[in-house]
Amino acid sequence: MTSSESSTSSSRNSTPRHRQRSNARSANNSPTTSILKRNAMSRKALVPLEHGCEDNWTWSRRHRSKEVVLSGPNDRTVHFHPNWSKGTAGVQGKRPLNNGRFYWELHVSQRIFGTSIMFGIGTNKARLHANSFRNMLGENVHGWGLSHKGVLWHDGIALLYTKRFKENQATVIGILFDGIEGTLTYYKDGKCLGVAFHGLDKIKEPLYPVVCSTAAKTEMTLKCARRDFVNLQDRCRAVIMKHIKTRQDLIQLKLPAIISNYLAEVLGDYTPLRQVDNYDLLFDF
Predict the structure, then answer these.
(1) What is the pTM of this model?
(2) Which residue, 49, 53, 68, 208, has fewest beta-carbon neighbours within 10 Å?
(3) 232-241 vs 257-264: helix axis angle to the nearest 10?
(4) CATH superfamily of domain region 51-225
C-alpha cells in the first residue's frame, strides 16, 4: 500500500386495493427479498451454540490502539483510524476464552480494503498498534488471526484458508472458539469455513478476542455473542481424543457404536493448508 490508506475508497384499469395487493406480492417476490429469506433460513440453521446463553462482553477501552474509537451500546462498535491511517490499529475484547466454548459475530462495514483487516484471538502479549501496515494479529506466537485476504496467520506463518473477501462489500464474520477441543473456527455470512487453528487448549496464558485493521474508517460491530455450558462428558471426550488421531485409530478400539459416533463428532479429518509468502499475498490465489 501507499503511505496512506485513507478514505476515498401494474394494470391501468386496476383498483387502488388491487394495486396495493399486487405491489405487496411484487415486493415479496423480488430478487432481493428472496435472497434475504434464503440467507435468514441458512443462517438459522448454522448458528453455533444456539442452545447456549447470551454472553454480554464488549471491547476493552484499556487494551486498544490510540487509533481505535469505541461507540454504540456497551461500546460494541469499533471504529479504526477515524481520520486517516498511517499504521495498524487493534483492540482486545474483555472476554477470557480459555476452557470454554464461545461464539461471536462481527458485522463489518463495506470499507473492506487495504493491507489487512483481521479477526481472531490473542494473549495479552499480542500488540495492538504498529506504525506500519502489516498483518499484526498472528505476527508472532501470541496471536491467531484471519485476514480479509483469506489467509491465516500465526507465529509469522501465513496459510491459505479461504477466498479473499470482496472489497467494499459489507460482511458478517462469525468466530467459534472451543477451548475444550482446542480449536478456532470461522464463519462468513452464515457459512462455516472450517477449523482454522488447533491446539489452543494447550495455551496456558489467557486468550481474548482481538480485531485489527490498517484501513481508514473501518467499522465493526460485535453482535450475537454466546457461550456454551460445557459438561463433564465433553471434557472427557477432549482428553480421549488427544490420543486418537485418525478414524482408523477409533475403529480399532471396537467401542459401542453410540460412543464411537460421539467421539467421531470432533475427529479432525482435514487437509493441510498451503503456506504462502509475501509475494503470494500481492496477487489473487
Answers:
(1) 0.72
(2) 53
(3) 80
(4) SPRY domain (2.60.120.920)
**Residue written as cell 395487493?**
21
pLDDT of residue 266: 67
What are the residues whose beta carbons fall under 8 Å from the beta carbon of 178, sequence distance 6 or more? 101, 184, 185, 200
- Torsions phi, psi of 148, nearest 5? -70, -5
Cα–Cα nearest to 161, from 114, 128, 109, 196: 196
**Per-residue pLDDT reduced to its tens digit, 219-273:** 999 999 999 977 788 778 878 887 887 888 889 899 998 998 888 876 655 556 6
Question: Which residues does 71 contact at the CB level (< 8 Å), separation at least 6?
Answer: 77, 79
Residue spans per domain, the chain: 51-225, 230-263
Residues in the chain: 285
Question: Checking phi first, is residue 20 left (phi over 0); if not, alpha (psi -120 to 50) or beta?
Answer: alpha
- What is the mean predicted confidence (pLDDT) over 168-195? 96
Tell me how far apart the alpha carbons of residues 283 and 96 are, in angstroms, rounded to a whole number: 36
Exposed/middle/buried for residue 15 (C-beta within 10 Å: 0-12, 13-18, 19+): exposed
Beta strands in 47-190 (DSSP E): 53-54, 59-64, 68-71, 77-80, 88-93, 101-108, 117-122, 129-130, 143-147, 151-154, 157-160, 171-178, 183-188
- Could you tell me the end-to-end alpha-carbon distance of the chain, in angstroms, rounded to an integer? 19
Output 248 or 120, whichever has higher pLDDT: 120
Amino acid present at 206: P
